[in-house]
Write a sequence for this structure.
C-alpha cells in the first residue's frame, strides 16, 4: 500500500544520495583519523607542487639577474630561505587541512547518521508490510 | 505595491519550481554567452575565438554540462586569448591558475564562481555587486576569492596596456614584456586599494547582516554601498586621476539595486509579527526571536471561456463535471424528498 510518509522518506533519501550524500558516504568509509591523514598527505603533495611553481615564477621574473650573476649568487642563503618558506607554508596548510577536514568529516557523519536512521525506518516499514502480507 | 511585488516573487518562484531544469539551463546559457562575449570584446586577442559562432557553441556546451565544466571553459578561453599575445604569458597564466587551485580552490571549489564573476562584473562596471553579495549570502572567506578575481582582472588589464609595447617573439622581448607586465601590476595602487576595500566591505556586510536588529540585511547593503561609493570616488579622483567619478557612482547605485532585488527574492520578513520567546531545557535557557516570513499566494488566474454551445466531453473540466454532478444529485435528492412528503 502507498504510504505518504514512506514516499517522503524515499524521496529525501534519493535526493541525498544523488547530491551531497555521494561525498558524505565516501568520506565516512574512513575513520576520522585516517581521512584527515590522507588529506594531509594530499595537501603536502599539492603544496609542494604549488611551491615549486611559485619558485619557478620568481626565477623567471628575475631571470635577467640570475643569468648575469649566476656565479656570484649566494645559493646557500637562498636555499635556506626557500626551504624555510616551504616548511612554513606546509605547516600552515597542514593546519588548515586539519581544521577543514575535521569539520567536513563531522558534518558528513551527522548527515550520514540521519540517512541511516531513515534507512532503518524504511526497513522497518517493509518488514511490517511483509508481516501483514504473511498474516493475510 | 509591496503586495504586488510579493505576488510577482511567488509567481517567479512557481515558474522556477515548475521548470527548474530548463530555467537553470537557460540561465546558464545566458550567463555563459554574456561572459564569453564580454571577454572576447574586451580581451579578445585570438581572432579564431572572437566570433559569434564559437561563442555560441561554447555557451551551449557550458549550459548543458556540469557547473565545473563552465568554470574550466572560462579558464581555457582566457588562456587561448592570451596565447597570441605571448606563449610564455599564457603558460605563466596557466601556472597561476594551477597555483590558485592547489592552494585555495581545492578547499572551497564552489568559490571558483566568485573568482570568475569578479573580472566580468569589472568589465560591466558593476564589480561592487560582489562584496555586497558575498557579505550578504556567503562567508568572509570570499575575501580571498574576490581578491584573486580582482588580481586576475588587473592582470588582463595590464596585458592589454602592455600588449603593443614589444614586438617580436624573441626570448629577450618576451622576458622584457613579462617584466613590464609585472611592473605594471606591482605599481597599480588602484588594484591594491580595490582588494582592500572589497575585503573590508565583505566583512562589514557580513557583520551587519548578522545583527539582530530589524532590516539588518538592508541596513548592511546601504551602509556598505555608502562605504563603497565614498572609497571608490576618492580613489578614482586621487589615485587614478581619470575623473570618471560618474561611472563609479552609477556602478555603485546599480550594484546596490541588484543586491536589494536579490535579497528581496531570497527572503522577505514581516517584522511587525516578531515574537520574542523564552524557554529552557536541562542545559540551556533560550531567548528566541522569531520573525515570520512575508508570503502571499501567487495569483491564480483562471480564464473562463464562455461558449454559446455546451463544450464537448473531451474539453470539459473535471472539476466542473464533479460540481455539475453533485448539483444534479442534490436536485434529485430534493425532488425525491418532496415526492415522499
Amino acid at each position: 500500500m502507498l504510504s505518504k510518509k514512506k514516499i517522503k522518506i524515499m524521496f529525501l533519501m534519493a535526493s541525498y544520495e544523488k547530491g551531497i550524500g555521494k561525498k558524505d558516504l565516501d568520506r565516512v568509509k574512513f575513520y576520522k583519523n585516517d581521512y584527515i591523514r590522507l588529506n594531509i598527505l594530499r595537501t603536502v603533495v599539492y603544496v609542494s607542487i604549488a611551491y615549486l611553481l611559485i619558485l619557478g615564477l620568481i626565477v623567471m621574473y628575475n631571470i635577467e639577474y640570475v643569468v648575469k650573476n649566476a656565479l656570484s649568487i649566494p645559493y646557500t642563503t637562498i636555499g635556506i630561505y626557500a626551504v624555510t618558506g616551504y616548511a612554513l607554508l606546509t605547516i600552515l596548510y597542514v593546519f588548515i587541512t586539519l581544521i577543514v577536514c575535521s569539520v567536513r568529516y563531522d558534518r558528513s557523519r551527522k548527515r550520514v547518521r540521519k540517512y541511516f536512521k531513515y534507512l532503518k525506518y524504511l526497513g522497518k516499514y517493509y518488514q511490517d508490510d511483509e508481516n501483514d502480507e504473511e498474516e493475510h | 505595491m509591496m503586495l504586488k511585488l510579493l505576488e510577482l516573487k511567488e509567481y517567479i518562484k512557481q515558474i522556477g519550481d515548475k521548470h527548474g531544469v530548463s530555467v537553470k539551463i537557460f540561465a546558464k546559457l545566458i550567463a555563459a554567452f554574456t561572459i564569453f562575449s564580454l571577454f572576447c570584446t574586451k580581451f579578445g586577442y585570438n581572432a579564431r575565438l572572437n566570433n559569434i559562432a564559437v561563442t555560441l557553441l561554447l555557451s551551449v556546451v557550458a549550459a548543458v554540462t556540469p557547473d565545473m565544466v563552465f568554470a574550466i571553459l572560462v579558464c581555457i578561453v582566457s588562456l587561448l586569448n592570451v596565447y597570441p599575445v605571448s606563449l610564455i604569458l599564457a603558460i605563466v597564466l596557466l601556472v597561476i591558475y594551477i597555483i590558485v587551485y592547489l592552494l585555495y580552490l581545492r578547499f572551497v571549489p564552489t568559490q571558483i564562481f566568485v573568482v570568475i564573476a569578479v573580472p566580468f562584473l569589472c568589465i560591466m562596471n558593476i564589480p561592487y555587486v560582489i562584496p555586497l553579495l558575498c557579505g550578504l549570502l556567503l562567508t568572509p572567506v570570499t575575501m580571498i576569492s574576490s581578491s584573486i578575481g580582482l588580481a586576475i582582472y588587473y592582470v588582463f588589464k595590464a596585458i592589454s596596456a602592455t600588449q603593443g609595447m614589444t614586438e617580436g617573439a624573441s626570448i629577450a622581448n618576451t622576458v622584457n614584456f613579462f617584466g613590464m607586465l609585472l611592473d605594471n601590476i606591482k605599481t597599480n595602487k588602484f588594484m591594491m586599494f580595490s582588494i582592500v576595500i572589497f575585503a573590508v566591505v565583505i566583512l562589514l556586510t557580513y557583520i551587519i547582516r548578522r545583527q539582530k536588529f530589524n532590516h539588518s540585511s538592508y541596513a548592511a547593503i546601504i551602509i556598505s554601498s555608502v562605504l563603497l561609493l565614498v572609497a571608490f570616488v576618492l580613489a578614482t579622483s586621487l589615485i587614478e586621476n581619470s575623473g570618471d567619478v560618474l561611472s563609479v557612482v552609477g556602478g555603485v547605485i546599480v550594484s546596490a539595486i541588484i543586491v536589494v532585488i536579490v535579497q528581496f527574492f531570497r527572503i522577505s520578513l514581516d517584522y511587525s509579527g516578531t515574537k520574542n520567546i523564552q524557554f529552557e531545557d536541562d542545559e540551556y535557557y533560550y531567548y528566541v526571536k522569531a520573525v515570520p516570513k512575508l508570503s502571499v499566494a501567487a495569483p491564480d488566474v483562471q480564464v473562463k471561456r464562455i461558449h454559446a454551445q455546451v463544450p464537448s466531453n473531451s474539453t470539459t473540466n473535471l472539476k466542473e463535471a464533479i460540481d455539475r454532478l453533485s448539483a444534479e444529485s442534490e436536485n434529485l435528492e430534493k425532488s425525491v424528498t418532496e415526492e415522499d412528503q
In short: Helices of chain A lie at 4-18, 21-27, 32-61, 63-68, 75-135. Chain A touches chain B at residues 46-47, 49-50, 53-54, 56-57, 60-61, 63-64, 93, 96-97, 100 (CB under 8 Å).
